[in-house]
Design a protein that fits this description.
The complex is a heterodimer. By secondary structure, chain A is mainly alpha-helical. Chain A contains 20 helices and 2 strands. The radius of gyration of chain B is 19 Å and the shape is elongated. Classes of the chains: A mainly alpha, B mainly alpha.
């Protein structure tokens, strides 16, 4: 077991150092950064398998405390994998500062996963917010810039609410540690949790998620979906584990988020927005169980990264970074091959099945872990949410298959001159490996492969197909309108803080 | 303490009212700054509750009532972060003003 403080300090701050050095020598440092992210993934897998747990204090006595436990390793693996995959798959289209921001984001994420005091979490979440803001604004058109503005002002306000909660808590406990929060007033807890829920993107604080995912570039969306929302999940899971009233309130908020966001996703016709609403729903499910919140968020983040990476067989011109010259449609078609088209479809389908919790995928294992740890009443809601999620992903798979057929027809026409030059399909091989890994992880734990669980999952899939076929003809544009008003996005944390306070003081659910 | 806190809570409410009723980006930025100032002031007030004299370590007691240095040190970070947020928001506002010079939400949310 590794328990040297130096190793953990290096692990935390080396990504940011590499990121800043990469600003000067970006070509030299790109492969080093990929190697570093790969080694962090391997390290976190070793930590997960061997159940390593270590705590260290930065600057020794009186310094900041960090804890590298199972929560940290799970999310660390998910985040390093997401960033590694996005940088590898979109390396040809990255703007020159994209990977530097991603690495600084990685440092902020590690701090937020491992910090056990509220101030370090505040700083890490603010840094995460700045990096996410820059990633969203990378596309540099008016819509994405305005969305990034909304994200930053909403996130900034949420963090100020969080900070007021922190100082109120300090008044009562005399400490900033999460474990000392048991002595503080409900008002302080509500303000802290409202800030964290906004960063985690949970309904109704998470109204920013669909807007951002649909308007950011795919490389940014895959990083945002894969790890940025996880930054808020780790502190929530730690707080829920220590404080019973918070854990109970999280069940209420999680249930509301899981069902309402899934309903929005069912009626949403834009693929990016549907994936965003699905994220809100899945993260709502994750916070139901403090024990398995991080593993569920990790699995979901990995699948979302793969989904955003393969939403289209090839990067369309508008998805390219602004500084590059754009492809013509003909050039884009010429660069495509059958293997690329097929591999993207396979990975999209496997990742979708995993989010649907289809048997023999990693999502099936994590969903059953979650179901085993939540109150009985909440299980009905989880099943409803699973059914709605299945409906969403049946539509997304169908939409993706149609896209695949269009590209297949284009590729196989004789008009396009195919290049005879040998090409390395490294991206496609990597994607295929990822889909195999999802299936292998699903087969790793046979204890959940009971007849009952498999039948339940298959029934949900069949019902999802039936439900999709019944709502496919609905004109949903008038039923579900995108929430794009800044007032709605900014006001949500206040509403959630008020609801939480009402629950802690009066309803006591 | 509660009496001292009241003006700051009022400032916080004014900021929140402003941000929830702003019609343009600039109004939102001002309101966010007001909330930021109120938050910092609450920190300073809580730090100064135990005493108002400078906390300096020495061998003999210099003062009888020190202010708490811990929240003061923490709030420095929050001030810097608040400044960075404002700077980033201003830069985006500058960029968005090319397409919507009045920076009204109704023009930008179309």
């Amino acid at each position: 077991m590794i328990d040297s403080p130096l190793v953990f300090a290096l692990l935390t701050f080396l990504p940011a150092t590499l990121g800043f050095l990469g600003c000067v020598y970006h070509r030299t440092f790109f492969p080093i950064c990929l190697a570093f992210l790969g080694s962090v993934s391997a390290f976190s897998i070793a930590g997960l398998i061997n159940s390593w747990e270590a705590a260290y204090t930065l600057m020794w006595l009186g310094g900041i405390e960090f804890s590298f436990d199972q929560y940290t390793y799970q999310l660390l693996f998910g985040s390093s994998f997401s960033i590694f995959s996005s940088l590898l798959l979109f390396r040809k289209y990255l703007s020159h500062y994209f990977y530097q921001i991603s690495l600084i984001l990685m440092s902020a994420l590690i701090v937020s996963f491992s910090a056990v005091d509220l101030v370090s979490i505040y700083i890490a979440l603010e840094l995460t917010g700045f990096c996410a803001f820059l990633l969203i604004a990378d596309r540099n058109d008016n819509k994405s810039l305005f969305n990034s503005f909304q994200y930053l002002i909403g996130g900034g306000l949420a963090m100020l609410i969080y900070l007021i909660g922190v100082v109120t808590a300090f008044q009562y406990s005399g400490s900033f540690l999460i474990k000392d929060l048991s002595a503080v007033t409900p008002i302080a807890l509500c303000l802290i949790v409202a800030g964290l829920l906004t960063k985690a993107g949970i309904f109704i604080c998470g109204l920013w998620v669909p807007n951002i995912y649909s308007h950011a570039s795919p490389q940014s969306s895959s990083i945002l979906a894969g790890c940025v929302t996880c930054a808020g999940i780790a502190p929530i899971a730690r707080m829920s584990n220590d404080l019973v009233p918070i854990a109970n309130s999280m069940v209420v908020i999680g249930v509301i988020s899981a069902v309402i966001a899934a309903l929005y996703a069912v009626f949403e016709r834009d693929d990016g927005r549907a994936l965003g609403w699905s994220s809100v729903s899945q993260l709502g499910l994750a916070i139901l169980s403090p024990t398995y919140a991080c593993v569920y968020a990790m699995q979901h983040g990995i699948c979302k990264t793969l989904l955003f990476s393969t939403l289209s067989p090839e990067n369309t011109p508008h998805q390219k970074a602004n500084h590059e010259t754009e492809y013509t449609l003909q050039e884009k078609k010429e660069t495509l091959s059958n293997f690329q088209n097929y591999s993207a479809l396979i990975v999209f389908v496997v990742a979708s099945l995993s989010v649907m919790a289809f048997p023999f995928t990693s999502g099936f294992v994590t969903k059953n872990l979650l179901k085993g740890d939540i109150p009985t009443n909440a299980k009905i809601i989880v099943s409803t949410s699973t059914l709605l999620t299945t409906t969403v992903y049946v539509r997304l798979i169908w939409s993706r298959v149609q896209k695949f057929l269009i590209y297949d027809k284009i590729i196989n026409t004789e008009e396009i001159q195919k290049s005879t030059k040998f090409r390395w399909y490294s991206n496609q091989f990597y994607l295929c490996l990822c889909s195999i890994a999802i299936i292998v992880l699903g087969l790793s734990d046979w204890s959940y492969m009971s007849y009952q669980n498999i039948v339940n999952s298959l029934t949900a899939t069949v019902l999802g197909i039936i439900l999709y076929s019944s709502v496919v003809g609905l004109q949903t544009s008038k039923m579900v309108k995108p929430v794009s008003r800044t007032l709605d996005l900014v006001g949500a944390p206040f509403v959630v803080a008020a609801l939480l306070l009402a629950n802690l003081l009066y309803f006591k659910i | 303490m509660i009496v001292l806190m009241l003006p700051l809570v009022a400032l916080l409410i004014i900021g929140c009212f402003g941000i929830l009723n702003s019609k343009s980006i600039i109004n939102s930025l001002f309101s966010l700054d007001v909330i930021d100032t109120a938050t910092i002031s609450i920190f300073v007030l809580i730090a100064g509750y135990s005493g108002y004299q400078t906390p300096i370590v020495s061998d003999f007691p210099r003062y009888s009532n020190y202010s708490d240095p811990y929240p003061q040190a923490i709030i420095l970070t929050a001030i810097v972060i608040g400044f960075a947020t404002q700077a980033l928001l201003c830069s985006i506002a500058l960029r968005l003003s090319r397409s919507a010079p009045l920076l009204r939400y109704k023009d930008l949310e179309k």
